[in-house]
Amino acid sequence: MRFQGWLISVCVCCLSPLLTGCWGYEEFEHKLYPHAIAVDKVDGQYVAYVQILDMRQLGKIEGSQAGESPGAWVASARGNTLDEAAHEFYQKVPRSINWGHVNALVLTNNLLKDREWTKVFDIFTRYSEFRYTTWVFSTAESPQEILSTEPVIENSPVYSGIGDPYELYRESSFIRPVRLNRLIANLREPAEVHLIPQISIDQSTWSASNEQKTTLTLTGYSLLNDQLEFVSNLSKEESVGMRWVDPHLARTTLNLAANGKLLGSAILTKPRIKIGYIREGQNIRYQLNVSIRGVVAERYNQQTLDVLDSIAEREIEHEIRNVYADGLEHHVDLLGLEDVVYRRNPAFYHQLTQRNGLFLRSNSLSVKVHVSLLNSIRTLEGTQRFLQGT
């Protein structure tokens, strides 16, 4: 018995050095945590801007005062490649970097106009710490100003427009944000619409103590053609019709007007989209059907729901045809119609693209919209309809 106890003690002493421990442990505050990266191209060189969080502003510390220090710091570095710029950045920081918390990637128009701009994705897909779920944006403004813009109310960029843009999209669906993995998959599809949400600085909406405050907002898209070349920036007004062919649309508003007079507004959600096509010789005619439901948010007269349905259908069709016409001007299919041919008959699709390129004409599209509106439950009429089950 004494021998067994002695043997166990020897084994424990011999094996203990082989056990793993916390020898390589690093304190949380001994690292820097980038939240967003912006990439520009100036004079043939890549310029990388890195937004690093100030964890003291992010944490809820009792007794701390907002505004004691900025919520983030922005550093920049340049190089002939993005990796070279990253290593120049490493030489300028006082601590090691943890890239696992990068939440946003901002690409400038200068970069997108370079034919080899997609090489930027190499470092984000090869380096193990970067995640594929990063949000991707474009901008026509200074990337340093974009990353230096602090959010209103909160002091940390974690709560800014690039921190969690999908929360805003669920409330008002106009410009749909995109993650890196979805963008890369989209760029590899020849018939998809290649769009990158564009972010800008808003200097007129917010104020505090009679002082204007800046904030970030989505203002449109950067448009790429099937060769992934930069075509143009589309404003929110120019791209508003694309929301009706977006199956992810969560909640959007539509003004109801007739003969120049505003009759009210409606909240619409979750459109059902069906796209078909008919071959007419070597040409194609598309049939786009959109069915959507919603509620009347504002109502300024006694027009019936059937009349408001018709007005909404006419307005939605008008927006769809406008964005279709804008796409023809840019030689791009903004509604994603060609993707239907590519999925159903890829051989015929390749035959058409080799001969004609973009095979859309001004008369290639027929549109049919069906809208079903209900009264808001908080109105007297809506309450009666609800109670009667109609």
Automatic annotation (TrEMBL):
InterPro entries: GerAC_N, Spore_GerAC-like, Spore_GerAC-like_C, Spore_GerAC_C_sf
Protein localization: Membrane
Topology of this chain in the membrane: Lipid-anchor
Record-annotated Spore germination protein N-terminal domain positions: 25-200
PROSITE patterns in the record: PROKAR_LIPOPROTEIN
Residue ranges occupied by any Spore germination GerAC-like C-terminal domain in the UniProt entry: 220-355
Pfam families with a match to the protein in the record: Spore_GerAC (PF05504), Spore_GerAC_N (PF25198)
Domain of life according to the entry: Bacteria
Keywords: Germination, Lipoprotein, Membrane, Palmitate, Signal
PANTHER family linked to this entry: SPORE GERMINATION PROTEIN B3
Stated family: Belongs to the GerABKC lipoprotein family.
UniProt name for this protein: Ger(X)C family germination protein
UniProt source species: Alicyclobacillus cycloheptanicus
